[in-house]
Design brief:
The complex is a heterodimer. By secondary structure, chain A is an all-alpha fold. Chain A is 61% helix and 2% strand. Chain A is built from 31 helices and seven strands. Chain A has a two-stranded antiparallel sheet. Chain A has a two-stranded antiparallel sheet with strand order 3-4. The longest helix of chain A has 73 residues. The radius of gyration of chain A is 53 Å and the shape is flat. In chain A, 25% of the residues are buried. Chain B is mainly alpha-helical. Chain B has a domain of 109 residues. The longest helix of chain B is centred in the middle third of the chain and has 17 residues. Classes of the chains: A mainly alpha, B mainly alpha. Chains A and B meet through α10, α15, α21, α22 and α23 of A and α8, α11, α12 and β1 of B.
């Protein structure tokens, strides 16, 4: 604009590419802006500087944004009413308040009573209602209506009329219609009244028949629901059949199963190595998703297939299944008219046929069940491949069928161990199994809320029951063998609860051991039940994990048993060897090193020797090189030696060895020795890869080669011996010197200059980020301070200017007044003088 | 001359209830040296009194370390006085003036014996050995021998040798520790795996590990909370129904 109003900030050097904000200033404009602003703020303040009056807005809710304007109005209105209420009453004697509804006084409405509200309802009777048309024809009414309106428009366009005319015409029309309708209704009313009267007269004449006809009249009035309607509605609400998965071929199934097993194995290996246990996601549970949903562990394939019965989906059927389980299942099986059913049965049958471990379904639980059954079948009957398996499954097990039919179908989960025991007492194994199965089915967690806790308890009861069976004088190990299956199933369902109760048992056992050691100083090996528990641990949980909540404590407990407990009898030796077997089984996959195991086997071999100076090896606790418990396994009787044959050691021997004869005892001793040889052989195979394998096995080897009276043993024993020794000796000795893992080299300190990116020129870059920030803050503060001071100074100048102008104004006014006064005085004086002069003249 | 039970009782209390109150503790010298020579648990117990005499009363004991070395046998990890013994051994081996061959021999012997030790002792002895390596860096050849022969057919260390200097421990490596890296107890395996990496500078505090008992170990493991419990995926087919079940071969359910 005006070049004289522009101030140019000259720069010393022009730099290309740099933008400057302040190269041109407009002092005039900015000054006028500042003055205007001060006029609005500072001047106002200045003018009101000695005034204390304040304007208060007391309108109700004026500044309250939460209230909607309508509400605000209503409340203001009520407030006003409340204020006026008391005052008016004194003087307003006969004027009541007028009540209104939508702005019309109620009194008026009352006068016209029912004319207004009764004209809308009945006019459309007989024609199709809008709803009905919408429902039937998919809402085409909208289109129709539009057409109608457009038609009307067309008509109106023929005779162009003014808007006012149109409206008037419409009003007149509607009024006329109303009138007509009213007259019609009135006449109808009159007619009905008349009819009623007539009717009453006639009624007495037609005594009985009347009510029927009346009812008929009424029925006619309500339009009967159309059959078409009913069908349409039904189709709308009907459940749609969802496409079920296609049935898989056997190859696909096998492939799937293989993939699943591979994945599980990979998982196990990862856990064995103990890498990133936490980092990896949760282990996939064994139950597939649909497994939990249906939850029945049936002998047959229990997937529910969508089935039709008389053209209707039989959903109710399935619900009943939940209640009655078996019964329904059997019935359906017998029906046999359902294709789906048959197919599924065939499938499950084919599963049975195959090898139990290799086959399978995505539905593991039913799979397990069938496998379990297969195992049972094997024991009772040789399993044959049948063509017609669907019947086979049921026929194979007549005992079981009988048991099934005897027992009730539903069981509540027992609340206490006593009730649980009484439930199973006096039943055969088969019955017990079925009872457990049914308890599980009837109380599946998906059926009711509390069932989960109940079934979790059941696991504990079952464990306790197994323990009790094992501690009997004549341990019922066969029963336990079967009961392991439901235990496994329950464990798969509730891993946490299972691990908790297992740990609880282990803890109790370990504490007992501890107490005994503290009190007596020595301990004996626990009873058979604990051993069975330890065995069950290996069945339920993976023992190869680097760390496992149940398995690791079990390891420590077994180690304690092998090192702390005295070996004084043959039973102790058997128990000890049992624990050795457990150890071997636990580490069979992970190949972990168990020193206690080797120590114990060495000790057992030691006590099979005749008393002599042990040379070249040392036995450690609980065995002693000299003492009274030596020669526990020594057999001197030549005949017993000859007649011995390797046989499996019956577990029940630990409770009733006393009854056995001398020969039997001797045979058991020899069996133990053979077992010991075998274990050594297995250990050797297992620990082959350890770098100090020879050092570990050194004492055992010396004992075997130098001290064993091999020639006295029967031939079979010699076989065992030699196979063990061979396994020990044919291992190559080689030692590779240890080398530490390379660690990352620490980088050397370097003296190359540090290069810093320059972000802004003219700024100090030195210092850390924090320091820079501080500096920036200080600078900003300085700048702000300067600005503030300048502003205050300008304010003061402005104020001073204002005051000056005020004073000037005042002075000017005074001067003007003085002038006026002086002027008036002068005129007065002048007049007076003129008068005087006149007088003088006169 | 005393019955062993009484011997043990006397020796247990000797160092803190008898020796401090004697005018001339050196009088006990003969008694202690004889006890030290007996062997077994009595030797272990005599060690304590002997230490006081050596430390405070200028007792000169020839071949002390040789004797100490010969005390190490498989039972030391199993005896009741384990904590006391290893406390003292730690003291004796803390001197940095000991020759490397001696310390190496000790290390090698302790490691060899550890192959028969229970987990609670292993948890103590592994940090103990680590500490020895830290104090005597010359022994680190046992851990790290980059220029050695590629393959040996025999461990150079001679276990049976009584004399530490003859045991050729410095030419060996601690393969025993490597074996213990596959111990079944996770903590032991971890402790053994520490020696794979180069050691940190700080010594481990083993005083609280000395008294560790199996019951404590068990309690520690049982109290650990598991986030989720992995399960066996191989379906059960009875008590002895696993594949290649060892039990099925040797035990019957009757």
């Amino acid at each position: 604009s005006n070049p004289f109003e522009v101030k140019v900030n000259r720069q010393k050097f022009d730099i290309l590419g740099r933008k400057t904000k302040n190269d041109v200033g407009l002092p005039g404009v900015s000054r006028s802006k500042a003055i205007k602003k001060r006029n609005q703020t500072l001047l106002k303040e200045y003018k009101e500087r000695e005034k204390t009056n304040v304007f208060k807005d007391k309108r109700f809710g004026e500044y309250n944004t939460k209230i909607t304007p309508e509400e605000k109005m209503i409340r203001r209105f009520t407030l006003e009413r409340q204020q006026n209420y008391g005052k008016k009453n004194i003087y307003n004697l006969n004027e009541d308040e007028e009540l209104t509804h939508y702005g019309q006084s109620l009194a008026e409405i009352e006068k016209l009573n029912d004319i207004v509200d009764s004209d809308s309802d009945t006019e459309e009777r007989g024609t199709l209602s809008a709803e009905l048309t919408a429902a039937h024809f998919g809402g085409g009414g909208g289109l129709l209506r539009k057409k109608v309106s457009s038609e009307q428009q067309d008509e109106e366009e023929e005779k162009p009329k003014s808007r006012k005319e149109l409206i008037e015409e419409m009003i007149a029309k509607s009024k006329q219609e109303k009138q007509e309708r009213q007259t019609r209704r009135e006449s109808a009313l009159e007619l009905t009244e008349k009819l009623d009267k007539d009717w009453k007269e006639i009624q007495t004449l037609i005594a009985r028949k009347a009510p029927k006809s009346e009812r008929k009249d009424k029925e006619v009035e309500k339009p009967k629901p159309d059959e078409y309607d009913i069908i349409v509605r039904e189709l709308g609400f009907e459940m749609k059949a969802k496409p079920s998965e296609k049935l898989k071929t056997e190859e696909e199934l096998a492939k799937e199963e293989q993939a699943r097993l591979q994945k599980l194995e990979a998982d196990r290996l990862r856990r064995m190595r103990g890498i990133d246990e936490e980092a990896n996601q949760k282990r996939p549970s064994h139950m597939s998703a649909d497994d939990l949903a249906d939850g029945f562990i049936l002998d047959k394939d229990d997937r529910r297939l969508l089935s039709y019965k008389d053209g209707k989906i039989n959903i109710e059927n399935e619900e009943e299944k939940g209640e009655e389980g078996e019964e329904e299942e059997e019935e359906e099986g017998e029906e046999g008219d359902n294709e789906d059913e048959e197919e599924s049965q065939e499938e499950s049958a084919s599963e049975d046929e195959e090898d139990a471990a290799a086959d399978g379904h995505s539905d593991l639980e039913s799979d397990l069940e069938s496998e379990g059954e297969a195992a049972e079948n094997k024991e009772e009957k040789k399993h044959e491949a049948n063509e017609n398996e669907s019947q086979n499954v049921e026929k194979l097990d007549p005992k079981r069928e009988a048991a099934k039919s005897e027992l009730p179908y539903t069981f509540a989960v027992p609340e206490s161990y006593e009730t649980f025991k009484s439930l199973l007492a006096g039943r055969t194994i088969e019955q017990q199994l079925i009872i457990l199965e049914r308890i599980q089915k009837c109380n599946h967690p998906s059926l009711a809320v509390g069932n989960k806790a109940k079934l979790e308890k059941l696991f504990g009861f079952l464990l306790e029951y197994i323990g009790e069976l094992a501690t009997l004088d004549l341990p019922e190990l066969r029963t336990i063998d079967k009961l392991v299956l439901p235990l496994y199933n329950l464990c798969q369902m509730f891993p946490e609860a299972a691990s908790d109760s297992m740990r609880f048992i282990l803890r109790d056992a370990a504490h007992d051991l501890e107490e005994v050691i503290e009190v007596k100083g020595r301990a004996t090996l626990p009873a058979l039940d604990t051993l069975i528990y330890l065995k069950i641990v290996s069945l339920l949980f993976p023992t190869s994990d680097f760390w496992h909540p149940v398995v690791t404590p079990a390891f420590i407990y077994m180690s304690q048993l092998l090192t702390k407990c005295r070996i004084t009898t043959l039973q102790d030796v058997i128990k000890g060897l049992f624990i050795c077997c457990l150890f071997l089984e636990y580490v069979s996959l992970s190949r972990r090193f168990v020193p206690e195991l080797i120590n114990f086997l060495l000790g057992v071999l030691h006590i099979s020797l005749p008393k002599s100076q042990a040379q070249g090896y040392t036995v450690v606790h609980p065995f002693t090189p000299v003492g009274k418990n030596l020669e526990l396994l020594l057999v001197c009787d030549k005949e017993d030696l000859k007649s011995w044959e390797k046989q499996n050691v019956p577990l029940s021997i630990v409770t009733r060895l006393k009854e056995a004869s001398r020969t039997e005892i001797n045979h058991t001793r020899l069996s133990c020795l053979a077992l010991c040889f075998d274990l050594i052989k297995k250990c050797a195979a297992l620990y082959e890869s350890l770098p100090s394998f020879h050092e570990i096995m050194h004492p055992v080897r010396i004992l075997l080669t130098k001290h064993m009276p091999v020639n006295e043993y029967p031939e079979k024993m010699q076989e065992w011996y030699h196979s063990a020794l061979k396994e020990l000796e044919n291992k190559v000795k080689h030692y590779i010197p240890l080398v530490c893992e390379k660690k990352k080299p620490v980088p050397l300190k370097q003296y190359t200059p540090k290069i810093v990116k320059v972000l802004e020129f003219g700024r100090k870059q030195a210092g850390s980020k924090k320091e820079q920030e501080r500096k920036q803050l200080i600078q900003r503060h300085k700048r702000e301070l300067k600005g503030a001071i300048r502003e205050i100074r300008k304010d003061n100048q402005y104020l001073a200017r204002m005051q000056l102008s005020e004073i000037m104004e005042r002075d000017a006014a005074r001067k003007r007044k003085v002038k006026e006064l002086l002027g008036s005085l002068a005129t007065q004086e002048g007049e007076w003088k003129a008068m005087k002069r006149k007088k003088w003249k006169n | 001359q005393l019955p062993p039970g009484l011997y043990k009782k006397v020796l247990v209390i000797l160092h803190d209830s008898v020796l401090p109150y004697m005018n001339e503790p050196t009088l006990m010298m003969d008694f202690l040296t004889v006890a030290y020579g007996i062997g077994g648990a009595i030797s272990l117990l005599a060690l304590n009194g002997l230490f006081i005499l050596i430390h405070q009363h200028n007792l000169e004991y020839p071949d002390f370390y040789k004797k100490l070395y010969s005390l190490l046998d498989p039972s030391i990890y199993h005896v009741k006085y384990r904590a006391r013994f290893f406390h003292l051994t730690d003291l004796f081996l803390s001197s940095s003036h000991l020759p490397a061959y001696l310390v190496a021999a000790f290390i090698k012997r302790l490691a060899r014996l550890a192959l028969t030790a229970p987990p609670e002792a292993l948890l103590m002895i592994l940090p103990f050995i680590c500490n020895l390596f830290r104090r005597h860096p010359a022994c680190k050849v046992l851990l790290h021998r980059p220029a050695g022969p590629a393959d040996m057919s025999e461990d150079p260390y001679v276990m049976e040798e009584e004399e530490p200097s003859e045991s050729r421990a410095l030419q060996s490596s601690v393969w025993e520790i490597q074996s213990l890296q596959s111990h079944y107890h996770p903590d032991v395996a971890k402790a053994a795996a520490v020696l794979n990496q180069s050691l940190s500078e700080m010594e481990d505090d083993i005083s609280r590990l000395l008294e560790l008992s199996a019951a404590e170990l068990f309690d520690k493991e049982v109290k650990k909370k598991a986030v989720d419990v992995p399960l066996e995926f191989e379906p059960v087919r009875g008590l002895f129904g696993k594949k290649n079940d060892i039990f099925a071969e040797h035990f019957s359910l009757d």
